[in-house]
Design goal:
The complex is a heterodimer of chains A (168) and B (622). With 168 residues, chain A is an alpha+beta fold. Chain A contains three helices and nine strands. The longest helix of chain A has 12 residues, at 98-109. By secondary structure, chain B is of the alpha/beta class. Chain B has 22 helices and 23 strands. In chain B, α19 (490-499) links the parallel β17 and β18 (505-509). Chain A: This is Auxin-responsive protein.
């Protein structure tokens, strides 16, 4: 089928089957031709095979507050860190286990969490990740199995070691 | 409407005009001006000075002029009229906060009571603009705090507002009455708390689709004791729990409260208590619309009775986590409803039917596409007074199921002949349905169709969607706002240029074949003010074709098109009154300069005061 100005008109090809039944084309619209200076690694090269069904930034044009509300498969919790000026939010469903979660937190707030042991909690860094569960109790992250944690965690707080209450 | 474009251009003209120091205008079209000429000829020495008498008369007359378009025209008559108009203007609208400096505002207008200020362009809502781009409220609040101690109203859209800004606002304006923040960010509950506490005459506190950080401050408790002048309180976008007892107490002592929009942390039981306390409400945001606990048998509150008691409710929204079994409780108010917003509720046609059947007076209806074509048919059958319809996607992805289609669109067009504004998300569409709407709904001023699958043609004929959109611009003679989608060739844009003579706002995504399309629009649409385009094959030649227009437009946005740095520079050099910003989507701090020739995003806008001084590193102003 004709390709005008690099625009892919594959969609108007006559073929059997429903439109869009084939895999969606690339992340970047093929009309983009010149030097791309982009940091994103997914796509940009015209010659690279396009990833299937990739979501494009900002498309469809629905504001994020609408997207979050309708997607029942997210589990956003607030994360605060002692001394940090802003609260952040993360979606717990994006992580499968504690190491993944802790790594994400470390990246987000630029710190390292210490070595965890059941008996002594987190040692070695001065930062202690804690969470509030459904009953309103503050617990140490890692004390209960992951599934129990992810379903009961209401919010996260990364305490500075010296302030972490001994009760934890 | 041309208020804003007239405003800036006319201000420019006035500056030039005043520099040349011409005599009073001798236009004979206005009898008042003729009077000025006549009094000019008296030039005798008898006090009071005729010019002052005239100015007093003018002042009294101008009090009655509220339209900004009229006021802008008045200000151009002569120096004297310019002066008097500036003295008597109490409300100002600034469509782009970077089109002028705060100093220019405070220099010209000395007695403002109300300011409407808009910041970022709309595509910023969809992550197409890196964070920290700008649009800070800070310089504005600092300047107005000094200049307008009697300021009463501030309305901001897409501005970056900090808690400090809110604190300064609360401290600076003793008579402050109305704060509305739409799609704003940068502040939290602590900022809101200061406003609630210090603005003792606050009538309106509306937070709409804004991002509000949870600082864990009980802001509701910060409203002062005693009777409150509150008339409108909207916090449905605040994603943090509130102190319900404090809210209830506030509602009890707010006899003038008409609009209350609660957030999803307010349960059905709590809503019931609020409604019992405030039966005078006209607009209600129902919060979660879900009970806290499992029903306790005979303890169940009578929700329907609460709605029955609120006889004045004409506007309902919320339903953030609604439970279908309680939906029928709203039935008593359905016949009176003029506005119903179900756009956060996954409502099926089956749930919608018994409700919508009674909504004969609805003028505004927002919903998710979960209501399906069937639901739209039900709307079409009953809602003959419908003026505005918005259908949002429950699953906003390109390849999701498409529960609404041309069938629903056509049904609406046949049933709701008075329709003026539509926003419709779907997966696929036909030219036939779009054309039917163009023929059945001649009152349309806003037509925004988003076919979520990019480049999707008419799914029945396989042809581009050119004819459908062509019919819209041709038949809807009052159209001022248009958003296009689906597979579109340059031909669609030739129709827009030929027929879209009143279009002020145009949104384009993944459309067109060549620069011709852009040229058609820029040469053909004389009223075009706001042009936002993404991911379309438009380049330097297309950009250049609009050179004669950019001074008369509020802004042009082009992202992921085929622009080069050189082409953008040409525009910047040719148009000194236009600011040309170029940046990438990821806002990488490491990039001080744009490298390479490719321009990812171009954002240009006219400005009376030159390029802004607060641009972050990732923005290059050419």
């Amino acid at each position: 089928m004709e390709v005008t100005n690099g625009l892919n008109l594959k969609d108007t090809e006559l073929r059997l089957g429903l439109p869009g039944a084939q895999e969606e084309q690339q992340l970047e619209v093929s009309c983009v031709r010149s030097n791309n200076k982009r940091k994103n690694n997914d796509s940009t090269e015209e010659s690279a095979p396009p990833p299937a069904k990739t979501q494009i930034v900002g498309w469809p044009p629905v504001r994020s507050n609408r997207k979050n509300n309708n997607n029942k498969n997210v589990s956003y919790v607030k994360v605060s860190m002692d001394g940090a000026p802003y609260l952040r939010k993360i979606d717990l469903k994006m992580y499968k286990n504690y190491p993944e979660l802790l790594k994400a937190l470390e990246n987000m707030f630029k710190f390292t969490v210490g070595e965890y042991s059941e008996r002594e909690g987190y040692k070695g860094s001065g930062f202690v990740p804690t969470y509030e569960d459904k009953d309103g109790d503050w617990m140490l992250v890692g004390d209960v199995p992951w599934d129990m944690f992810s379903s009961s965690c209401q919010k996260l707080r990364i305490m500075k070691g010296s302030e972490a209450p001994t009760a934890l | 409407m041309t208020e804003e474009d007239s405003s800036a251009k006319m201000s420019e003209d006035v500056e030039r005009y005043l520099k040349l120091n011409p005599p009073c205008s001798s236009s004979s079209s206005s009898s008042a001006v003729a009077f000025a000429n006549k009094s000019g000829t008296f030039k005798s020495s008898s006090p009071p000075c005729p010019e002052h008498v005239l100015e007093n008369v003018l002042e009294s007359v101008l009090q009655f002029l509220t339209s900004r378009c009229d006021r802008n025209a008045v200000s151009l008559v002569c120096k004297s009229w310019y002066r008097v108009e500036a003295q008597t203007r109490f409300e100002v609208f600034i469509g782009n906060c970077y089109s002028l400096s705060p100093a220019r505002l405070t220099h010209r207008f000395k007695g403002l009571r109300s300011i409407v200020l808009k910041g970022k362009p709309r595509f910023a809502d969809f992550n197409l603009m890196p964070p920290n781009w700008g649009a800070q409220f800070a310089p504005w609040v600092v300047a107005t705090a000094k200049a307008y101690p009697w300021l009463e109203k501030v309305h901001l859209k897409r501005m970056f507002v900090t808690d400090d800004d809110l604190a300064l606002l609360a401290d600076s304006f003793p008579g402050f009455k109305e704060l509305t923040l739409v799609c704003c960010e940068g502040f939290g509950t602590s900022g809101i708390a200061v406003v609630a506490n210090k603005c003792r005459q606050l009538k309106v506190l509306d937070l709409v689709e804004s991002e509000v950080t949870d600082d864990e401050v009980d802001w509701i408790s910060c409203f002062p004791e005693g009777e409150s002048p509150l008339e409108s309180l909207s916090f449905d976008c605040v994603e943090s729990p509130i102190n319900f007892n404090a809210l209830e107490g506030l509602v009890v002592r707010s006899p003038f409260l008409k609009k209350l929009r609660t957030n999803r942390f307010v349960s059905l039981e709590e809503l019931h208590r609020l409604m019992v306390r405030a039966p005078q409400l006209t607009s209600l945001g129902t919060g979660s619309f879900s009970p806290d606990n499992a029903p306790q048998g005979e303890q169940l509150p009578d929700y329907a009775a609460a709605f029955l008691a609120c006889k004045s409710i004409v506007c309902l929204s919320g339903f953030r986590e609604f439970r279908p079994e309680y939906l029928l409780a709203i039935s008593p108010v359905c016949a009176n409803l003029t506005s119903l917003n179900f756009s956060y509720a996954n409502i099926s046609p089956h749930m919608l039917n018994p409700i919508i059947r009674n909504c004969h007076n609805i003028r505004v209806f927002w919903a998710l596409d979960s209501i399906r074509d069937e639901g739209l048919q039900a709307v079409a059958a009953t809602c003959k007074e419908l003026r505005e319809l918005r259908i949002f996607p429950f699953d906003p992805r390109e390849d999701s199921e498409g529960p609404v289609s041309g069938v629903g669109l056509q049904a609406i067009s046949e049933g709701c002949r008075k329709l003026e504004s539509i926003l419709y998300f779907c997966q696929r569409m036909t030219n036939e349905a779009v054309t039917a709407m163009s023929e059945n709904c001649p009152q349309l001023t806003v037509f925004r169709l988003c076919i979520m699958g990019r480049h999707r043609p008419d799914h029945v004929t396989g042809k581009p969607m050119d004819d459908g959109f062509g019919a819209i611009v041709k038949n809807c003679k009052k159209l001022t706002r248009l958003a296009v989608s689906g597979l579109l060739t340059d031909e669609a844009f030739s129709y827009i240029g030929e027929y879209g003579k009143l279009i002020r706002t145009l949104s384009v995504a993944f459309a067109g074949n060549s620069d011709k399309a852009l040229r058609y629009v820029l040469e053909g649409c004389p009223k075009l003010q706001k042009l936002e385009i993404r991911d379309s094959p438009f380049g330097d030649a297309g950009l250049r074709s609009g050179m004669h227009r950019y001074c008369n437009m509020r802004f042009v946005w082009l992202s992921s098109c085929v622009l080069s740095l050189g082409g953008c520079r040409d525009v910047a050099q040719a148009l000194p009154n236009v600011v040309v910003e170029v940046f990438g989507s990821d806002g990488d701090d490491d990039d001080d300069t744009v490298t390479g020739d490719y321009v990812e995003t171009l954002y240009l806008y006219r400005s009376l005061d030159g390029p802004r001084k607060d641009a972050p590193k990732f923005v290059t102003i050419l």
